[in-house]
Design goal:
Blueprint (H helix, E strand, L loop, with lengths): L27 H9 L4 H8 L8 E4 L3 E4 L2 E3 L2 E6 L3 E9 H23 L3 E8 L22 E9 L4 E3 H4 L5 H13 L5 E3 L11 E4 L5 E2 L1
Length: 217
């Protein structure tokens, strides 16, 4: 049966023909919908706008080329969501959407479960950098060259506790457990998630990227 023949009795989070909403329960269809929005600016912005009023601060940006050879298309500037950021950042619209869903459905539930409080702010190392993969002088451009990846280093909880990837990844207590739950939860949304177990270059942060399909290392 083609997806457009699915009946209205199919829940929207399983229905391929119904637009994605940030609070739809996550299913394999959710990931498919997210990928389909890569070339659909209006559809992606509409999905972002399903966040309840006042819970997301972002600005759509015109296509532009801040650095020669690295044009940015279908991007937004993220100023804040349910969490504050150490600084705003430019993101492809699907990256911004993946982050918001991850934050609402994986990050905050993990904090509430393990600490009984919420994540108040997130420290990141940025999203856009016009460079090749692994800093090479030539070859394939990094996801950062198109603002399709965000590097996250630390989480500040509402009760004042601070959790960093560098200091707590190998922690055997709740901080380490939290970081591992965050990593696993991110793998449900992002195309690739890289952390300390991947290589030394990621010892102090998680790389949340849109390319690939559930590459989790």
């Amino acid at each position: 049966m083609a997806w457009w023949h699915f009946g209205d009795d199919v829940p929207r989070h399983w229905h391929p023909g119904k637009p994605l909403r940030v609070d739809d329960p996550l299913t394999p269809v959710s990931r498919w919908k997210l990928r389909r929005l890569a070339d659909n600016r209006d559809g992606c912005l509409a999905a972002l706008d399903t966040v309840p009023a006042g819970e997301l601060r972002y600005s759509p940006l015109d296509d532009h080329e801040p650095v020669a050879g690295c044009p940015l298309e279908k991007v937004v500037r993220m100023q804040g969501s349910g969490v504050d950021f150490n600084t705003s950042f430019v993101a492809s619209c699907p990256l911004a959407l993946a982050w918001v869903i991850f934050e609402r459905q994986r990050l905050q539930p993990a904090a509430e479960e393990l600490f009984g409080t919420s994540v108040e702010s997130v420290v990141h190392y940025g999203s856009f950098a016009c460079r090749h993969v692994a800093g090479r002088e030539e070859g394939r451009l990094s996801e950062h060259a198109s603002a399709e990846a965000l590097d996250v280093a630390a989480f500040h909880l509402a009760d004042g506790r601070r959790i960093t990837v560098r200091n707590h990844w190998h922690d055997e207590g709740p901080r380490g457990e939290f970081l591992r739950e965050v990593r696993d939860g991110a793998c449900d949304l992002f195309g690739n998630v890289l952390g300390p177990d991947y290589n030394a270059a990621h010892a102090d942060h998680f790389h949340f990227g849109m390319r690939g399909y559930r590459s989790c290392r």
